[in-house]
Amino acid sequence: MPKTRTIRVDSLARVEGEGSLTLDVRDGELVDARLDIFEPPRFFEALLRGRSCEEAPDITARICGICPVAYQMSAVGAVEDALGLTVSRPIHLLRRLLYCGEWIESHSLHVFMLHAPDFLGFEGAISMARKHPDLVRRGLRLKQVGNAIMSLLGGREVHPINVKVGGFYRVPSRAELRALAGDLAWAREAAQESVRWAAKLPVPDLARNDERVALRGDGEYPFDQGTIVSDRGLEVESEQFEEEFIEEHAPHTTALQARRRDGRSYLVGPMARFALNRERLSPGALEAADEAGLDRASARNPFRSIVIRCVEILYACEEALRLIEEYDPPDAPTSKIEPRAGVGHAATEAPRGILYHRYRLDDRGIIQEARIVPPTSQNQHAIEQDLHAFASSRLELSEEELRHGCEQTIRNYDPCISCATHFLDLRVNRQ
Amino acid sequence: MKEVRPVVLIGLGDADRGDDGAGPALATRLAGLDLPGVEVRTGARDAAWILDAWARHESAVVVDCIRSGQPVGTVRRIDPSHGPLVDRATASTHGLGLASAVELGRALGDLPRRLALVGIEGGSFAVGSGMSPEVCAALPVAASMVVRILTEWRVQEAQNA
After folding, report:
1. Domain limits of chain B?
2. Which CATH class is domain A44-378?
3. pLDDT tens-digit series, residues A123-133
4. Domain B5-160 in CATH: superfamily?
5. Per mean pLDDT, which range of A176-185, A297-306, A322-331 is the poorest?
6. A78: which of A253, A357, A406, B30 fits an S-S bond (Cβ 3.0–4.6 Å)?
7. A120 in B contact zone (CB under 8 Å)
8. Burial degree of A343 (CB within 10 A; 0-12, 13-18, 19+)
9. What is the ipTM of this complex?
10. Chain B partners of A125 at a C-beta cutoff of 8 Å?
11. Which residues are CB-neighbours of A76 under 8 A, at least 6 positions away?
């Protein structure tokens, strides 16, 4: 008779969206690991049809409360591509600065509030705060530094409203930006300290050999633009994204899973970005990465992604300080928009990895078709493979220990399933 | 040494999401009264922001729209000293909300000396719909409750002086 044991986990509030994990064990061997996503489909792509292309950044910003800037950046990038519009350099730099704010905010939340409790053995940030108050305070303050950038450039911290196709509704003055510099200088020091702290965390051995895919910026660590590259020689522009990557529906999930066209899984996110853009880091971030012993090879253990996120927080602080120092306000906050029929594509680097948008517009600039591929759907297959690799060599662990390890494995990717979990069900089917 | 100011009144919520606009609407209304020694702030339901908003204040009143199963427009005072708060219906686990802010503040020893939460039961959260008549009618009730709390604290302060 098959023996099925079910463990319910009602307390995992540190992954975004509704999901569960099933491990099928037969004769002591793990035969399948499935991350089931049952977050209801949200129909954003259908919602966009019939709306003006100028509404795309505000509608898509609503997809996610933690990475709205990424949605806005991919939306404006794709619409501007369709309209044949190139924004001025000051606007591009302001968009990079806004993206710095989102990376600092999102990574700080994940590193200190969601992921650190796994490494330090706490149920969550609140219990961790009693033993490690300074660590939690540092995370909260770092997050606030990111919030302040979002608030100034985005109009508010959550679901920013100041980004528009062609630029911004309002651009800041030099003085307004310089007012952020003091807190950013503190944040840079705090991020350096955080890299050193994260580098000492004990991590399980796990080496993943998936193809790593990220944008490669033109001399810059990538945020809002770049060529899509991989460590296996891929080099394509965003309009070729759908030629290289496909999304398919697996029966156990309401999210689409992306794969390479030949069926292989691939990785996007901090590990891929770091591996493909290490030399584009700022000097301080590169030095911190070196000190932490991070090289391209070590960027293959997903449990070390926490260190890379800290390096990226540091990078975002240094980049933000540079952008503020060099800020030259644009002559106009936005370029004029001339509607025209066309198809536009854009890929940008959300904190969790590449976020791809495509829009087809009619001659009035009305969206006829929209396509959005978020990072979590691209990483879901890789997460399942990680779970398989992690759990298959640890089936002797108690189910509590196994569940904890599996949760931590999932959180390595900071998945945003609603991209939206209030809990993870772990089901171990032992036969 | 950081300056410690007397009271902050924090209105949480999104003015574009129906009854969720109750917190900012009430804060704006009370800001118009120019209450002495009371700083008024409105903002997002984000733990880091909330902890920062009440830092360096002796006392804080937080006004927010709630869903607790009571009739829409019900106004409740919640005293966090009575026990831990739980985020039951947070829309996003990536967003640590008011209950997380209170519990993080408690764990860190970063709660204001006096903290009161005033909840207004909401029912409709559609984008751009404006607040329901029940919630609009509850705003003066909630405003009176906030003023009563502030008066209560001033009396306590005077008695302790």
Report:
1. 5-160
2. mainly alpha
3. 888 999 999 99
4. HybD-like (3.40.50.1450)
5. A297-306
6. A357
7. no
8. middle
9. 0.84
10. 96, 100, 104
11. A56, A57, A163, A164, A165, A166, A346
